[in-house]
Specification:
89 residues, 2 helices, 88% helix, 0% strand
Length: 89
């Protein structure tokens, strides 16, 4: 009976070690994925700021033209297509 219990303990120990290895691998994947998410959130924030700055530049460029409304998309598109090179200079 003692040898049966020792065999069961050894088998349980082997399973626990295998589970610990699986858990460590899973934890590593989760940590890596979380780090990727944090980097992507920072990248998205930087991209949003760049888009906001570009939108302000377009509106400021178009604001110099009295015949176009910088608040209307059609005005922005026509202003951007006709006077953007002038504004970029």
């Amino acid at each position: 009976m003692a040898s049966t219990k020792q065999a069961a303990l050894a088998k349980a120990r082997q399973r626990r070690v295998a589970l610990d290895q699986d858990r460590a691998a899973r934890d590593s994947r989760v940590e890596s994925a979380a780090a990727d998410v944090y980097v992507l959130i920072e990248d998205r924030s930087a991209a949003e700021q760049a888009v906001q700055a570009a939108n302000v530049a377009i509106v400021l460029c178009c604001a110099g033209s009295s015949s176009r409304s910088p608040l209307l998309w059609t005005g922005l598109l026509s202003c951007a297509s006709s006077s953007w090179p002038r504004c970029a200079a």
